[in-house]
Amino acid sequence: MDADQRRKRKRANHGGTTSALKLILSFRSLTLGIILFLFTLFYFSGSDRSPFRPVLRASGFTRVLPVLLTQDYFGGGGKSLPLVIESRVLLPDHLLLVLSNRVRRGESLECVYYHQLGDADLLDEMLVKLAISADDYQESKSIVRCELPPVNYSAAVDLRRPGGEVVEGNWMASSRRAANQTAVPEWGKVVYEAILDWNTVVVLAKGLNLKPRREVDPAEFRCHFSLSNNLSREESFVFTTEATAAAQEVVRCLLPRSIRKNNTALAEGIRVTVSRVEDSSASQALPSVAKVYNPKSHGMRGEGEGKYELCACTMLWNQASVLKEWVMYHSWLGVERWFIYDNNSDDGLQDVADELNTRNHNVSRHVWPWIKAQEAGFSHCALRAKYECKWVGFFDVDEFFYFPRYSGQTPLPGQNSLRAMVSNYTDSPTIAEVRTMCHSFGPSGLTEPPKQGVTVGYTCRLQAPERHKSFVRPDLLDMTLLNIVHHFKLREGYKSTNVAEGTAVINHYKYQVWDTFKAKFFRRVSTYVTNWQDDHNKGSKDRAPGLGTEAVEPPDWRLRFCEVWDTGLKDFVLGSFADVATGLLPWERSSSSSARRR
């Protein structure tokens, strides 16, 4: 279609949309007036000099204002909810869109790319590609992953359902032209999460460039709060508050005074960002896709139920196949609640979590779309868990607690023994962390993943223990939430204790068969751990000794990391969990039942 034809079509459509345009413009004037009124309320309630301190209550109408202002309600036909794009961020290998409403799980969506040139005649020059995936996000939102925009196409990507049309001839055209000129934040310099914690908000951000394992002077930072979705203008920000703690990718700030005095829950849904004091104007703040999330309003236990004694948190990518063994085994040892942070898996992890929940394992899958942000993710998890759990363990799905025999004289611990061990310290006035050492196991001569699970299949390990993993009291962590994955910094006056190796150890099935192990070359989730394909820091303990930067299997891989044959946990699992009639383990029986149902 040439330019003359496009202009004729637009003139033909113009007459049919005049009345709709008038209605929309009138409605927008009304809603903009309401926003101005709400801004005035916030402004005066936050002023120390003003005696007028009204309480702002978030009504249902104010919550849908962004939807009404940014979406075309006249083209949906009432068949399904509109696709309400709240934020966009450019990740290294895809474009992430955050939607402020839920789309149906598994729904097919299309990403619509616009030419970067601002000429109205080029608005038709759009490219449509099928979205990579869509997923739930937090309790009421969605995320959609799109391919990176092609050259000369804007990152201000829209969505549509297959076969749908992008509405033309109305105010959405000018909206798209403005969006084309709006910079989409890039990963590496963006505020990506914000979580409410009493009268403060904990902000997670890339681009602070803080050193690992150190806290910094919080006086260097400020937080800025906005009622608008548009953070490109300084006037979009209503409040600025001081930071009270900062470390790594975490900045903790006070909530605005008016919210602290009235109701901290009102902070939920407000967008927040961070700036340094030397650039303390809001216009110099980091771009933000983060709105305040309140963990107390989601997933809490009922009144009078109390906290769980023992919980566990992990972050994983495409490890659904081993999740059942890990959860079922540790549930038997006493773990009552599971926080699974899913870092962009595409192997049916939600289906596995649903199956575990049908067996009363209390698993929550939390979508964590952020790349190389494990430490910040664990800080996020600690804040969620502290309202539900007395203790929470941070360990991986290839790590299994084991209580060895004491020279055959002491019987093996029974059910809930891990919970009993940790809960011994619940009333301690000084202990807030329980550490357990790890034994690293190798491929144990195998070339295929063990069918009965890792606890039975891998039986040869290194002699010396490596590192440790921890259970912590989430309510007794330092305000910075500083962690190096294996443990957290504790509040002043509290300390950790080490479990004796003869009492309990962790079997870390670190070096598995090559097809499983090689995935580590492509995904290292920790912020401060070098990707194995990068040609530096080759001496890191995180790397496998003797391997380079390419995922090439050494000829003797199946025989490596084997110094001590250790069948203790294998014997315990087969003796305690196997079905007497069939010999199947619980995670095998679950898989077989699922297969029969299909």
From TrEMBL:
Keyword Membrane: yes
InterPro entries per UniProt: Glyco_transf_92
Record carries keyword Glycosyltransferase: yes
GO MF annotations in UniProt: glycosyltransferase activity
EC number: 2.4.1.-
Keywords for the protein's UniProt record, in alphabetical order: Glycosyltransferase, Membrane, Transferase, Transmembrane, Transmembrane helix
A matching Pfam family: Glyco_transf_92
Cell location: Membrane
Principal localisation: membrane
Membrane-spanning intervals of the chain: 21-44
A Gene Ontology term for the protein's cellular component: cytoplasm
Membrane topology: Single-pass membrane protein
Record-stated family: Belongs to the glycosyltransferase 92 family.
Name of the featured protein: Glycosyltransferase family 92 protein
Species of origin: Linum tenue
